[in-house]
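User: Structure please.
Assistant: Input sequence and predicted structure:
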Amino acid sequence: MAQEIKYDEDSIKSLDWREHIRLRPGMYIGKLGNGSAADDGIYVLIKEIIDNCIDEHVMGFGKTIDIKIEENKVSIRDFGRGIPLGKVVECVSKINTGGKYDSKAFQKSVGLNGVGSKAVNALSDFFKVQSFRDGKSKIAEFEKGTLINEQNIDTTEPNGTLIEYIADDSIFKHFRYINEFIENQIWNYAYLNSGLVINFNNNKYFSKNGLLDLLKRNCNEEELRYPIVHLKGEDIEVAFSHDNHYGEVYHTFVNGQNTTQGGTHLSAFKEAFVKTVRDFYKKDFDSSDIRSSINAALSIRIQEPVFESQTKTKLGSSDMAPGGPTVKGFVYDFIKKQFDDYLHKNSNVADALLKKILQSEKERKEMAGIRKLANERAKKANIHNKKLRDCRVHFTDTNNDNRYNTTLFITEGDSASGSITKSRNVDYQAVFSLRGKPLNCYGLTKKVVYENEEFNLLQHALDIEDSLENLRYNNIVIATDADVDGMHIRLLLMTFFLQFFPDLVRNGHLYILDTPLFRVRNKQKTIYCYSETEKQAAIKKLKDKVEITRFKGLGEISPDEFAMFIDENIRLEPVILNQEHSIEKILEFYMGKNTAERQDFIISNLKVEVDTEKIEHSLEEEAYQ
């Protein structure tokens, strides 16, 4: 008989704002993470504070924002009006307190209504806010959301607000900041706010031409099929061109918020773009041929936007404003008029675009036969797919909290895949096993994805044949041995993704698994070390009767041990695509013909690791990221 669960007055609890945020941080900032992904919570905290600074700039107050990060301490200073001194404490510690409820003051706001700075405060070991207003200043300091000090002083500082905080490492475990993620975030603010200067760790970020600059930074102009089309109107701005990459690349924004998962505005743009092209050329082209290889950026500003999550990564609004035009109608009317006019006035662009569409159509039809045959083979293989050990939850399960943890480990060999398979969390961790070194697909067409059984099965496991919309795992993790062969396999897999699915890399889904190289232990304690330096420190710490084990492959790590390296303490190195560099040039340099230039690079980046048993040589992989 089931035990009766007590339910009375004592079962009802009321949490204050601080306790609720700390108990359910995911409700306020999405996933937590350790900083290895661009959407991890520590970057959301930074964004929430900057958003408030941006709102002041948009209202016409403050043209500069200063940002510093030193030893995990974040400092953000704007030069707006400053929080009213009598409300400084309430604005950062009382939910539903803020200046964004009056639509006249903040009609198209970026920051969260009365939540953002409170979440940062509650999730920080230390949090300080200081407001400067007309020669007076108010300072308030908190620990984990609890006020510990406040004072009023005179000041000669210009008006504005300073926020300093250190994220709570008991919530964001083993976190670290990756500057590339922060810089990309800052660049987006600069592109969307012409005239704004952002200083980050003594580097200056500034944009004159908005989304045109964004697109120039995010693609190689030498590969563009026609000059970037840049169109601006009231509350909307777009920029786009086509190149030769596979897939579609979109950068979308609402009120300055980077909507990485798109939404109604992106759907409207795609539909409007296709309709305008069909009408202009008076031909019913396939939509995939029209949008293939597109690079586009879209920004709109709307009143009272509705997002599908607290972190605002997907727009759900159907209307531009209460009682106003629909998002779909607004975007369509703008694209139809402005883009159609542009094509009529620029015949060179119209000719280049038509040529690109016809090329995509030809390639798609040539691929149709082999694609059909490969998909039939994959469907049969999937019934008994021994390469894939799937998990229960997938990234497409939008109502499941574990969707962001969904991970596919790509391993090589039976022993490595066996260890991970036995130690993984079957709810959200899957394993795909390679049988050996994959094909170097540099310079090959996408036909090889269908002709190569392993690549085709991997493509189907991820469900990314046509786009990333159906991606089944948030994290794709390359898990290979830390030796020369393992690094070669990493490079070959990275080449596969960069060549055929660059969006997957651009959107921060690809990682390298970092596992221990050494186990150092005595009878009392065991320490796992990820480098020679850590090993020497562990030997020094344990002192007596130390036993050292060198893991030469993932298969040598027992399943019980492996479980510790892929749980919440997992160490992942993100594969970051430097936006200033062309994928084609990167792959040509590292995976093309062996040139003298590349040999010089390899020699100058050779790293020697000294072990007690032998000396092993390995290449630094950072350059390939």
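The two ends are 58 Å apart (CA to CA).
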